Amino acid sequence: MSLLEVSSLTVRFAGLVAVDAVDLAVEAGSIHALIGPNGAGKTTTFNLITGLIPPTSGSIRLDGVDITALPAFRRAGCGMARSFQNIRIFAGLTVLENVLTGLHAGLGSNLLDVVLRLPGFRRQERDAVARARAALEIVGLAGRADDAATALAYGDQRRLEIARAIVARPRLLLLDEPAAGMNPAETEALAALVRRIRDAGTTVLLVEHDMGFVMGIADRVTVLNFGRRIADGAPAAVRRDPAVITAYLGAKVAARLEAAG
Amino acid sequence: MPVWLDDFLWTYQNVVYALGINGLLALSMYVVLAVGQLSLGQAAFMGMGAYSSALLTLKLHLPFAVVLPAATIPPVLFALAIGTPTLRLSGVYLAIATIGLGEVLRAVYLNVDALGGALGISGIPERAGMVSIYGLLIVALAVLWLVARSGIGRAMEAMREDEIAAAVMGVNVRRYRLGALLASAVLAGAAGALSAHVSSFIGPNEYGFEPAVTILSYALLGGISSPFAPVAGAWILTLLPEALRGFADLRLVFNGLIIVVVVLFLPNGLLPLRMRRWVK
């Protein structure tokens, strides 16, 4: 059974069908890429999966459990985490505190514990700090723990978002254009990081425009265009799919490429 | 108690009480601002606490230890009633709804004879004092300080900056907003009960729009980087008019000017020092 099963997911915004009957199955332990031209509905699909917008119809199952109607904040507790296309770190918090927010769903902080500071609460906080430091270690930001999050360079802010997303050891991690704005060396390091996350037991679903990155890392690729799924399969097969080439390059160029063999 | 301290407290009793009560009001503003909401209902909550405590003392002759907690119940119920529908909306709507609440209540106090009408309620015994006022302020500060340093404080800061990202981290944004508004109602209601029981008189015009803005200015001046900051703001704005006593009616102008200057030049308040939000 797939870890994530999306079936005939649809969302309409005032007449525009942004995501149109999309099916998506993400296998546990895989790295799955969601690609497509600008405006294809990739980020909207992410927002639907993480509960930030409600679907018009269709269903989302995580590990067999229907989570379609679950509010976003509850999905974190189900083992789902994500990063954002436009970086969304908490500017007023330090690097370490940002990562600690990623543990919020699991911390069960109640007011009485916080005020009474019972040993159990202190142990839980200390444990959380240790886990947050370990996550920073994994993304290579251990030395910046006490810096203001806004003091980080762009690429480091992206890695901070990943640390915040993986600190709770989610079952499913969604990365929205993690390589955007990165140079080739940084992209290569990112690919190694994503593989390490997968090897540690987290299934990864990512949206990315960098085709070199996607083809090198993904076990499976799903292609969207105008909100519809137009292809799905192994990276090598998808790359040769005429529908995909047409979507990216236009019918004319695709035909000329075909003619040239 | 040494004689000089006794003399000092006797002379400046009203100011010393006002510092404590305004400190509590500043905290009632802080808790809503800390989760990114803008409510102007603190003066209305305070008025409800003041009126209900006065009635409980004068009509039912209850001891103050019962009156003080009981006086926070009406503002809490109102906060629930007003919060549940408005907290789905963004900040401005809550601000408008809570301004409306204040004006509605003023009309009620003015027109209901049992509430004293335009004359207000006088002859309230002086039951509050240094111990009740400062005891409550210290407890409120300690609790809010511990909360701010915990995972709850991190969640509050996170949702203030980015509600969507906070929700994805698992923060129940609506529950936090409602919790903050309820805490605000408790603090302001208690402050109202305390002030009614040190000033012996309460009137319908003491809890309208003007005090609502004054309470907001405490938190704007001090900032909300920690619970101590808004209290410091309240103390400055309470002591300043005493120092500027000669200017009489111009004192409000000074309050307005301070808000403008702080918003323009010190957006994080006078005390922008940030506190660590985790436990070592």
Extended strand count of chain B: 2
Q: What fraction of the residues of chain A are assigned to beta strands by DSSP?
A: 15-25%
Helix-strand category of chain B: mainly alpha
What is the gyration radius of chain A calculated from CA atoms? 20 Å
The residue ranges of chain B in which pLDDT falls below 50 over 5 or more consecutive positions are none
Query: Tell me about the biggest sheet of chain A?
Result: 6 strands, mixed
Q: Which regions of chain A have little confidence, pLDDT < 50, spanning 5+ residues?
A: none
Spatial gap, N to C terminus of chain B: 39 Å
Short description:
The complex is a heterodimer of chains A (261) and B (280). By secondary structure, chain A is α/β, with parallel strands linked by helices.
List key phrases describing it.
heterodimer; A: 261 residues; alpha/beta; Rossmann fold; six-stranded mixed sheet; four-stranded antiparallel sheet; 12 helices; 43% helix; 23% strand; B: 280 residues; mainly alpha; 71% helix; 1% strand; globular
Question: Could you characterize what this model shows?
Answer:
The complex is a heterodimer of chains A (261) and B (280). With 261 residues, chain A is α/β, with parallel strands linked by helices. Chain A folds into 2 domains: 1-79 and 170-261, P-loop containing nucleotide triphosphate hydrolases (Rossmann fold, 3-Layer(aba) Sandwich); 89-169, no CATH class. Chain A contains 12 helices and 10 strands. In chain A, strands 6-7-8-3-9-10 form a 6-stranded mixed beta sheet, with helices on both faces. In chain A, a hairpin with a 2-residue loop joins strand 9 and strand 10. Chain A is globular and about 75 Å long. Chain B has one domain (3-208). Chain B has helices spanning 3-33, 42-58, 64-70, 73-86, 91-111, 130-148, 151-161, 163-168, 173-199, 209-222, 228-243, 251-265; strands spanning 121-122, 201-202. In chain B, helix 1 crosses helix 11 and helix 2 (42-58) runs parallel beside helix 5 (91-111). The termini of chain B are far apart. In chain B, 48% of the residues are buried. The model of chain B has no long low-confidence stretch (mean pLDDT 89). Classes of the chains: A alpha/beta (261), B mainly alpha (280). Chains A and B meet through helix 2, helix 3, helix 4, helix 5 and helix 6 of A and helix 6, helix 7 and helix 8 of B.
